[in-house]
Amino acid sequence: SPIPDYLAEALGSVEFDQSGATADYIPELADADPDRLAVSFCTEDGRRYSQGDADVEFSIQSISKPFVYALALADRGFDDVLAKVGVEPTGDAFNELSLEPGTGRPLNPMINAGAITVHTLVGPPDATPEARNARIVDGLSAFAGRRLSVDQRVYESEISCAYRNRALANMLRANEIIDEGPLVAVAGYTRQCSLLVTVEDLAMMAATLANRGVNPVTGAPVVSAAVVRQTLSVMATCGMYDGAGDWMTRVGIPAKSGVSGGLIGALPGQAGIATFSPRLDRHGNSVRGVDLFRRFTSDMGMHLMEVP
Ligand code: GLN
């Protein structure tokens, strides 16, 4: 297959770009090796291709958000989740307090305020925080087709300085959007962000979305097609935060980034794609990851708005 050669060449074309910087507000992430570079493709029939540092583990961070959103939709239904979190892009940074005037709902589930709320909506309404954390590890592991675990060091590192997320959670509690202790919600959300993945795990998670919610390798049905449609739609409009419009016009597929340098894209009915490169642009999106995806779109014509 020419695919491994193509992927190796793509990595080579961005390798020397050292622009951007690792996230500096989480000490463990600031210390990450900034030169790591990897890519993985997983097709909807389960073929997998990877190049670069494909077996290096890193914390999933905000790439957990669409998957936990999917679990919340599956567990509580669309109406209950939409009552608490909207679906409108913000044009603001991911950690901004972007709440809808009047209702106090976070504008969408991809920003931190929305994701902290969504975290509290996983499992049955009376689930304990422990049961909820377990449901999230089980659910994300089903997307990945492999048992995932939490990086305790990353968790401790982020929680020790999560002042901003605590502020967001306090506002959510004051607005009665979450109905539990704000610190419990932030602890669970931070734990979800600390799950360790490789770029191959991320590609398979994205491929599960691309494959109508069925893991293409294990065959496990993880969420329904309706949940996938909602999740991919929100990724398309909000997944790249205040870089979402630029992304949609130039790359053209639903995507999600994370501050540890991961980036996923899902091409419905075809494949899941993931990249890993820790230096970030001013939106908190991976510099070389965005470059690689632009290249994939122009080489493979994967822009969803391109009329064949
Ligand atoms: N855990 C990070 C935070 O809450 C995730 C942010 C991200 O990846 N964009 O700030």
Automatic annotation (TrEMBL):
It catalyses: L-glutamine + H2O = L-glutamate + NH4(+). Substrate binds at residues 62, 112, 158, 165, 189, 241, 259. It is an enzyme of class 3 (hydrolase). Its EC number is 3.5.1.2. Keywords: Acetylation, Hydrolase. The keyword Protein transport does not apply. Belongs to the glutaminase family. Homotetramer. This is Glutaminase. It comes from Gordonia cholesterolivorans. The chain holds residues 3 to 310 of 428 of the full protein.
